[in-house]
Write a structure and sequence with these properties.
It is a single chain. By secondary structure, the protein is an alpha+beta fold. The chain has a single domain, classed as Beta-lactamase (3-Layer(aba) Sandwich), CATH 3.40.710.10. It contains nine helices and 14 strands. The strands form four sheets. The protein has a six-stranded mixed β-sheet, sandwiched between helices. It has a three-stranded antiparallel β-sheet with strand order 5-4-6. A three-stranded mixed β-sheet has the order 9-8-14, with no helix packed on it.
Length: about 375
């Protein structure tokens, strides 16, 4: 079911300066979807990381990175992009449990409960599929309790992604305060302790955003403080997806502890469109259009799209910030590249009022940006 699509070959990284690279050429294009953002790029906290993948006659890849305003110390709210490392570490934790002779894998039935509340029995595959197809918050929150905050943060730091910090669950979720107990099919608890070391973000700019914010239905005339919110950087998130697509690029200490089957499982679900596989159950719901959960290439297209261009991604959308991290691949024409970007679209500078320029500005920009890079790759 899950097909491995590249061989293990040595990889070379090259980096280009931000002043004369392909990103700048595309951003200076007169296309209004691009131009309107570029002219105010500081206001939009725009960061872009684009990686070309060049291969020689023997198939050895060379990765050429282009960046625009990428700043590990400047905060943006990562929203649901955090769900990708959560899923990756879930697979890693399952491997660790099996190494301890505990029965646990992606397809075994698990029970999920808290006090008198019990979810229907599911599998980890069910939860992960929902996360990639429709970014399900409740499924993600179960995995957070399975892993534990401290485990997540320690593991991300250990592999060199220390800008990524998990401090809280995802909302909306009616059971967000539940500390779920996860048991395997033998009735053994395999979830982590609920203990948590809350991490404050230090040496990070842009932690207070907006001129006002909505709290408990009331408008507060003060910025929203993100010091204890979830955090990541564009380079960290890009690093997660590169570790999934080209794990051999990294030394052993910098990789996730995953098997080939795990990597193929991740690639399969990351690349699904909403109407595929078990996503067919969402077809009758107009909320989940065909390109749902894909900002790049297809974000402003709600009709059925071209399956030959696969977008392996995880996006985030909250507090006026849109982020997408992706590997884009056309198997028929042998086109592939990495693209990650984040943009802030909150013209009234009121946080948490649900009045953002997602559909009018942010998503069309990200979709067109990816299409422009795809055209460049075609040439």
């Amino acid at each position: 079911m899950y097909k491995l699509f590249f061989s293990l070959l040595p990889v070379v990284f090259l980096s280009c300066s931000s002043e004369h690279n392909q990103i700048e050429l595309i951003l200076k294009d007169p296309n209004p979807l691009i131009k309107n953002v570029y002219q105010n790029n500081e206001k939009h906290n725009l960061q872009i990381l684009y990686t070309e993948i060049k291969k020689d006659s023997a198939g050895h890849p060379e990765l050429i990175e282009h960046q625009f305003q990428v700043d590990d110390t400047k905060y943006f709210y990562p929203a649901s992009t955090m769900k990708l490392p959560i899923v990756v570490l879930t697979l890693q934790r399952l491997n660790e449990l099996r190494n301890e002779s505990i029965n646990a894998d992606v397809d075994s039935r698990i029970s999920i409960s808290f006090d008198d509340t019990k979810r229907e029995e599911e599998t980890f595959t069910d939860l992960i599929a929902k996360i990639f197809l429709v970014s399900d918050n409740a499924a993600s929150n179960v995995l957070i309790n399975f892993l534990g905050y401290d485990y997540f943060n320690e593991q991300m730091k250990n592999i060199g992604l220390s800008n990524t910090v998990l401090n809280h669950k995802f909302n909306p979720d009616p059971f967000v305060k539940n500390n779920w107990n996860v048991k395997n099919d033998e009735g053994r608890i395999i979830s982590s302790s609920s203990a948590q070391t809350l991490i404050e973000h230090n040496k990070t700019s842009n932690l207070k955003q907006g001129n006002a914010h909505i709290s408990n239905g009331e408008k507060k005339k003060a910025p929203l403080d993100f010091r204890f919110k979830n955090r990541s950087s564009l380079r960290d998130l890009d690093g997660v997806i590169k570790r999934i697509i080209y794990p051999e690029l990294f030394d052993e200490k910098s990789r996730f502890n995953l098997t080939d089957d795990d990597y193929n499982f991740l690639r399969y679900w990351m690349s699904r469109f909403t109407y595929e596989d078990i996503g067919r159950e969402y077809i009758q719901d107009s909320t989940y259009f065909d390109s749902y959960n894909k900002f790049f290439i297809y974000g402003d297209i709600t009709s059925r799209i071209d399956r030959k261009i696969r977008v392996y991604n995880k996006l985030g959308q909250a507090y006026g910030t849109l982020t997408d991290i992706s590997y884009i691949k056309n198997y028929e024409d042998n086109i592939e590249f990495f693209l990650s970007a984040t943009i802030y679209v909150n013209d009234n500078e009121i946080m948490n009022d649900d009045v953002y320029e997602y559909d009018d500005l942010g998503i069309p920009f990200l979709a067109e940006l990816a299409r422009q890079f795809y055209k460049f790759e075609e040439e």
